[in-house]
Amino acid sequence: MQKDTQKYAYKQLEPYKATLELGHLKLKTLLVNVLTMIFAVILVVIMYHLRVQPNYFYTFIGFFIVFFVVNFALYAYDNDQYNNLRIAMYFNTIALFSITAALIIVFQTPSVFTTLFLAYAVIFIYQDYKVMVLSNVLVFIFGALLVMNFSTILDIPNNATPQVLLIIIFLFIFVMLLALSSYILIKRKMFFYNQLAQIKESEIRNIDILEELHEIVDQEEMDVESYYDDVEAFTEELSKKLEIENVFKRKIDVLRQLDKKSLVDLKEEFPEFTIEDIKKLKLLELRVSHKMRNLAIKASKTKDVEIEKTEIFSESQFKSFNHSEDSMYVKIISFVVFYVLIKRDKPYLKEVPEAVIRDVFLNSKYFYSVNRKVLKVYLDNNEVFDTIVNDILKEETNENLT
Amino acid sequence: MKTLLDRIRHSEFLTFNEVLRLKLIIVTLFISAFVLLSYISAPFSTADDNTFLFVSVAFSFLFLLTILFIAINSNRIAMHLSIITILGITFAFVNSSNYFYGFIMFFVSLTVIIFYHDIVTYLLYGGIVTGYGVFYIITNGSYIVGTNSISPLISQDTYLIVLIGFYVVFLIQFIVSDSIYEKMNNDWLKMSKTLDRYQSFSSRYLSDLSEKNEEQPIYESGKFQQTVNELSTFINEFLEEDGSKIAEVVEYYFFLHSQDIDEIIKSDKGTTLAKRYAKQFKKYMLNDDTEMSSLLYDFATLFKETPDYSESRYQYHLSDLFDDRINKLIALAFLYKFLKNETTQFDKYGSAKRVLAHEEITELFISKEFREFLSFELVNFYLDNQELFREHL
After folding, report:
1. Owning domain of residue B253
2. Nearest CA in chain B to A158
């Protein structure tokens, strides 16, 4: 079964996931820099005590200065910060392993060799696929090449055992275990980002459905004008009470005309406001699907929503037609009921054409919501399904019409 | 092996217990390699034959015990056993040789503990390994000082810094990643519960609409029942020899709509099978606010026309939305008026026809939940001027 599960994903998911990740990336970049700073200071103190040759001493200080300057520049540059921090992440990975390799080559002692693990630990903080691959390759290649080409690195007095091979085996196990650990963690992280982004968008769309249904039931739209009138009267009294000029009125006047006039016309009529000011006021609009309306609805429903400390995000929270504890008959019937319901017109969703339904089941998260065997029968025979529904249900609709 | 790789590839869909089991299997494979390695490295060991025999038998015993606990799904116990095994191997390696790779084993055992990604386990076992490692370096560090070392003392200090640094950096990583996941976990759960709330209001409006239009509930429609029956039988024919066996269960599903399903589940009467089906069907009932209705709304959201993503799309805090104080105050006034005038709550009859009273709004504004929308500054402003709000909005 060929599928593209992103085809029906909400279009807002990817940019929001990047926003979510950016917040975490900033924190991780800071952390990596602080840890590198601590280790850099320790290294400089040790090198000073060892009276290392000045050219080595200043070269390493130079490396760290470049490291922090690049990080500072990429962090501080506000334009496209997400991609800047990703560049910083790759730079830091390569830079830290390069500094470590240089240290091992300069000192050629087993104790300095172990700093490879420390560099790996610092980079592990990022939890990113590409960095994971890069750091695992670097630690293994650097480690193996260094012990093979600089045989004196592992020289310990009175020791003649074949340590190089064992070190490479240890490196392999170290890299494999941590790479798998990282992989599982990153998969879960990406899954969380996806679920969180999805539910945020789903909330907005559910509010839209809720408000559309509300208006159908009430058979009238919300009286937005009365809001402007009342808030104007309120702000007049407020201004009097605070003994200030009524600074609200002109903005409320703009609000009244936001859905009637273009931004340019509004700018002409209200020259004291910039286009940006007027755009900001759009967030205060009260029509269905607008920010202020959504905010008010969300606020009205948040009371007493509590999370138990023991509650965790798990498979049991997901809604589907494929719960592991259900019998096959229940999986079949629940899917069929759902299918027949989406074939009917509803106040919040018009009848969906058969070709689209099939496409959604094949190319969206619904692919995973239905038992694989049941879905295969449907996908292979969807025209039969369509005919059965049309023959029986449409017959009912026709009967009702006559 | 293919199943194992598939499970790793799709590990995000596994429950925590399943992920732990998966990790146990991987660690067990690695420990097998170590047990094997301990046999291979025996000729280089400085320990006497009896010690070697004892250690090998002990490892093998612990290893078998781990496999046994994995088999009976006691994954937490198996995890502790696998860690104890690797700790045993580490201590045996370190004590039976004075070689550098003995010291490297401290990192390998920390890696195994890190692999389980459990902060308490890491603090405990990781702390033991690191503590022992520090003790080992202080007492025996001179054995692993390199030939090229300029200062043996600084070499030992380097070992200490790297081992402690490794432990601390991973501990920081655990704390950071756990706090990030906990926040995302709570956000998701809260959103999920709020979503259920929106959907129960939507269902209420739908049911009001049906009543108003005097429509027959869909589950009572003979044609609907017939369609479900025929399609279920059709699918079942591909899965069972006698496809029509499912018809009885379809009939039972629709019958349940006229019954108190909780009563059936709790009742002492009725067969176990009937109760089991009732329990499983409960989430798919059409006469209540269930998983089925939630899935339908969710499906409908796929077809909604929506604007592209913007920075403010998921922001609801007035301070995040507006820099301008005037805009914030207008928004606060709108919010108050909306809550006071629009029907946003269920009344005592279960209809979505109740508005909030001024006192309820005040209580809401000062509640913990409302920090998601209003700053303390705005709440204080409201409290200072609440009579104006009450009078004019």
Report:
1. 218-299
2. B143
